[in-house]
Design goal:
This protein has 313 residues and is α/β, with parallel strands linked by helices. Helix content is 39%, strand content 13%. The structure holds 2-acetamido-2-deoxy-beta-D-glucopyranose. It comes from Lentinula raphanica.
Length: 313
């Protein structure tokens, strides 16, 4: 009798403790889906590190193929609305959660913080994300004329209203040679970066500054994201503006240099709360060795340190 009561109490305490591990939300990258073999494996590895943790993988579409497609095609603002609804209806997330964004999933989760954050994110980790956009599409191999033509076409049409409503990558394409057009017509990135004075929203800064930690992870050999420093809020500037725009498109991405986060107007004037966060020591710069999303040797320490905390609530 005593034993049964004791074990019942133990079970109660134990399950209460298990439920007070802060849950985790993942947002996959381009070309992946929310429940691909790779994502499922990642979830199970996280559960080995933090037994009992609740993990939710964000989806746009429940069907895997469609979810993968939605990473390429769709309206990011609408996708965010739907993800915010999704997260708000999951009871386990009700008291807040940590989040990990892979590649473009990272800037989408940051946008979630700025626009919704209900329930709130505690720590946000982004792997190889494009916080200052991409300023080029990966360079084609020499003599690959089809690739070069496609790349040129994409770049020329990137700020059309169609592309800005339908091509996901176009919605975070930030052309340093054409910043005015980017700011005026970009449907997503200039908004969440508060780069357009006409669309400035103070709420974004307040919400981003409410994070406990923003862990920005860059891949040292990343050749997929141009520039890779976008993962650290760096962006490219064109050093020489004397080229015509056609020549600029044809030129490989040379003659450009990187503006680091601390020199970005966005940071200096604190348009999105990033400076506030940084001055409290809450922006953490990290690297993974290797090409874009080579995380196999590089995720565990971050997951251990920044997720799975036992909550005292
Ligand atoms: C600012 O953003 C918040 C959150 O998305 C939104 O509720 C609010 O309407 C926006 N304010 C303006 C002036 O657009």
């Amino acid at each position: 009798m005593v034993w049964t009561t004791l074990s019942a109490i133990f079970l109660l305490v134990y399950s209460a403790a298990a439920h007070s591990i802060r849950p985790l939300v993942l947002w996959h990258g381009l070309g992946d889906s929310y429940a691909s073999p790779g994502m499922l494996e990642f979830v199970s590895m996280i559960k080995n590190v933090h037994p009992g943790i609740f993990v939710h993988s964000v989806y746009i579409e429940e069907e895997l193929d469609k979810d993968r497609q939605a990473g390429f095609y769709g309206n990011v603002n609408e996708q965010l609305d739907s993800v915010a609804n999704q997260l708000a209806t999951i009871p386990e997330l009700g008291h807040g959660f940590d989040a990990i964004g892979f590649s473009q999933g990272g800037q989408f989760l940051r946008a979630y913080v700025e626009r919704f954050n209900n329930p709130p994110i505690h720590n946000l980790l982004t792997f190889g994300s494009q916080h200052m956009g991409i300023s080029d599409i990966p360079i084609c191999r020499p003599f690959d004329l089809i690739c070069q033509a496609a790349r040129r076409a994409t770049k020329q049409a990137v700020y059309s209203s169609w592309a800005q409503a339908n091509l996901v990558q176009a919605q975070y394409f930030r052309d340093p040679a054409n910043l005015e057009t980017y700011i005026a017509t970009g449907s997503f990135l200039p908004s969440i970066n508060n780069e357009d004075p006409l669309r400035h929203n103070d709420t974004y800064a307040k919400r981003l500054a409410s994070l406990n930690g923003l862990v920005l992870i860059m891949f040292t050999q990343d050749k997929t994201v141009v520039p890779k420093e976008s993962a650290w809020f760096g962006s490219e500037v064109v050093d020489d503006l004397s080229f015509t725009s056609a020549q600029r498109i044809l030129r490989p991405a040379t003659g450009r240099s990187i503006v680091p986060m601390h020199l970005q107007p966005l940071y200096v004037e604190d348009w999105i709360g990033l400076r506030t966060l940084d001055e409290q020591g809450k922006v953490i710069f990290e690297t993974c060795e290797g090409e874009h999303m080579q995380i196999s040797d590089c995720w565990e320490d971050f997951v251990r340190e920044w997720t799975g905390e036992i909550r005292i609530t």
